[in-house]
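Hello again,

I reread your note about wanting to compare the complex against the isolated chains. To keep things tidy I'm splitting this into two emails, and this first one only covers the full assembly. Below are the input lines as submitted, including protein chains and any nucleic acid or small-molecule components. They are followed by the predicted structure of everything together. The single-chain runs will come separately.
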Amino acid sequence: MMRYPVFTAAVTAAVMALGLAAGEARAGDMPGVTATEIKIGGTMPYSGPASAYGADGRAELAYFKMINDQGGINGRKVTLMSVDDGYSPPKTVEQTRMLVEQEGVAFMFNGLGTPTQTSVQKYLNMKKVPQLFVASGADKWGDYKHFPWTIGYQPSYRVEAQIYAKYVLKTKPDAKVAIIYQNDDFGKDYLNGVKDIFGDKYAKMVTKDISYEVTDPTTDQQVVTLQASGADTLMIFATPKFAAQIVRKVYDINWHPTEFLTNVSISVGAVLKPAGVEKAVGIITGGYLMDSTDPAWADNQGMKDWLAFMDKYMPGADKTDGNYTYGYAVAMTLAHVLKECGNDLSRENIMKQATNIHALEIPVLIPGITVNTSPTNFHPLRQLQLARWNGKTWERFGDIIEGNGS
Amino acid sequence: MSAARRPILPVILALGLAVALAFLVSDYRLFQLTMVLAYAIAILGLDMLIGYTGQISLGHGAFYAVGAYTAAILMANFDVPYWATLPIAALICAGFGFAFGFPALRLGGLYLALATFALAIAVPQLLKYKAFEAWTGGVQGIVISKPDPPFGLKLSQDQWLYLFTLMVTVVLFLLARNLLRGRIGLAMRAVRDHALAAEAMGVDIALLKTRTFALSAMYTGIAGALGAIAVQFVAPDSFSVLVSITLFVGLVVGGITSLAGAVFGAIFIVFLPNIAENISKAAPGAIYGVILIAFLYLLPMGFAGLRRRVARPGATAQPPAQALTPSPGTPSPGKSAAEIRIKSG
Amino acid sequence: MQALLHQIFSGIATGGIYASVALALVMIYQATHHVNFAQGEMATFSTYIALTLIEAGLPYWIAFVITVAISFVIGVVIERVLMRPMTEAPVLSSVGVFIGLLLIFNSVTGWIFTYTVKAFPSPFPETSRFLGGWASPHEAGATAVTLIVLALVYVFFRFTKLGLAMRAAAFNPVSSRLVGIHVGWMLALGWGLAAAIGAIAGMMVAPIVFLDPGMMSGILLYAFAGALLGGIDNALGAVIGGFAVGVIENLAGAYLVGAELKLTLALIIILAVLILKPAGLFGRAIVSRV
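Full-complex prediction:
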């Protein structure tokens, strides 16, 4: 009994010793870079409630394995240290500091989640470590004035919602709109996008907006309530499982609104098939990525390359999972940035190259949509094309629409 | 727990080492150690409730969250200095704990465990609620700044915060030690082991239990505040039900009614996820689970059980064990969770 | 008025989900006096087994039976291998093991079967707009299955020797051993039955909420609530409690506090019931011996 403080101390000391052995950050102008290697970091939810998105990180790891098999970039091997944060902000802080301070990575890449990445945004900007291509559709990653070391990637949820709202105003100005959204930053961003466009008319046009929680087993109550509000248009801002439930329920209760669906949940395999492809006919969305389960892309070279990549580097992985396509696209964008950096892999130059991308084509993006950044535009992707589900495939219509960002 | 003469030297040595670490290891490791200390306080708070009075709570993440949000809101909206948020967080959490302690009186064993579990699940939902959004930042959470060392001390922010947290930890542990060793601790254990007998001896069970609940929530709340200051960010997603489960795991692994156990449990829950992840990126949760179960096989009484075994070889480390609702199949009949519960109903 | 009726029907349909899982919880409580936190994750794993079998071409009901059997075996094995060494350990450690199990099952399920949302087939006809769309044929069928299982459980515990022995083993292991009951095997049997019922619940739930590794995490909480409301030692009470929670949740969400706080309100109601009647609405209060 008397010995325990010593024991505790011993355990602590042992833990510390391990830590010391792990090595400190390398000093110099190009942290994380040697003649043969560039080391980069990223946090992903490999465990915890958002584990589904871990596929994104696995695709990135596989992509850089492929790159390294092909000789790396400018003669350097790309070592991506993708670590688990369990979608918990305190853990993200810990892991990000581990990568930056212990491992001495050159920069952070595609960290996933709005709350998790918010928790390290200030830290990374103070340390002047690039926080590249954050995997979240929140609008805030484009705030280059306050956070010059942070840049987003995909079209922001808010811009997407603005596009739907504009479309409603144009095609059906007297619509009665019902909205269902996930009660978190993701859903709230969409709601704000609609509010941006409807403005004063929001109260008049929107008969009911209602949220659901990720812990809710079903969303039936919400759908029934929305139907009772007398709306003729429904905007669904939900993650895949709930989107599938909602689409099915709307059909089953014999309600026929014009439906808009967030592009987070347009996977044929994970949403429309489970819901019933015939129940989703007529749904409108705005997409930017190709969906591997959409037959429209069967003969597309970019899609074929992606499928070949999946077969070789991720054998056995579920090809209907859109996270793999996303991870492939964002990794490819990073590979472009690193190539452009040449031999100057300082953090300043990496940030400079990441914010000077012009019309970069990524083969798994919908044709016509390109990656564009500038020192005053930190929204790499901001184009969408509307599409309507015809029972078999997403039928694209209209021009490619460019959002404003905020 | 009865040893009256305890050599002070090892404690001082351990403390000296803890202080020395502030100057030996990297800022990142200090951040981890700060989290260990915060969790240790939280686990100690949980221990008071579970270990000493036998009321099982699976919802202490709720109090941890309240403490964290109190600190964050005060710092971000009212410019309260970080150190001053601790007593306020303590008071608020004690209030919540006291209030929750009343219904808890009627709920014994399993029912209390599930009611507190429900509380933990409801927390993120409440933190997001519109009416509180002006303060809580809604789904976006609150970003706060890390405190600078006072008096122009030549320390990094992490060093200072670690030392500050260490100071708070030492004070709270000393207070807890004196309290739990004294009359009140005795009364608490008496209530746990045989409520009726304790009552006959003149212990006011209701008062003792609600006060313990308040004290336990207070400790956990202070821990939450310290954790928030170290992480510099709070959001509803930081306080999912996993926090409660993690604290519980820390307690079980550390072993009940043990101050050192609380520290060990905290070390376990901070470092195990990293170890699990290093073993397998495909299924880190499974590795975590396997290690946890394996640990409990080897040391069913947790770290504290090992310590007791080492300290008194031959003694079968039993004191608190049988009190806590024996598993079915154990030779001692009666006193199952359900029955204790019914008595109070 | 129609909207109100619709909410109630929809609540009953959802309540059926909670009822079936609550039944599994009662089962394991009856048999072992534990509440298994990993129950939901185990049921999800079983449901994936069923999906694998169905995708391999087996007819639904054959896959159903095989899955129930496999789940039973998994339950028994877990008890014999994992829980048995813990019998002498304090109950806290058992809860720790449950948490470990939960993590393992959740993680392994995601690892083997991926996290992609999957549809799960229903054995009931897919005529949509059944009952005016107020409940799908599957929801009606699933409720019927739950009631059948409930009846079987009732008959088993009430009228069979084995059922009586199991209850005895859980209630008073020492005395049971004295009258010649194999307490250890009774516990294992209880685990097996609970896992089997959980598998049935999983297969009934999956067509409604879709299958993913986290499928049960939300449901389990509502099922706990239902079981507590009805009394965790009472199968019928738990089923009624499950339905009640479904309806309360819907009405609260639609008319009282909005969807944002419906979970909170449902929990408050349950807490209130527990405070007034700690053993649940239908639970039996046992007098403690001193």
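For quick reference: DSSP finds 13 helices and eleven strands in chain A.

B.
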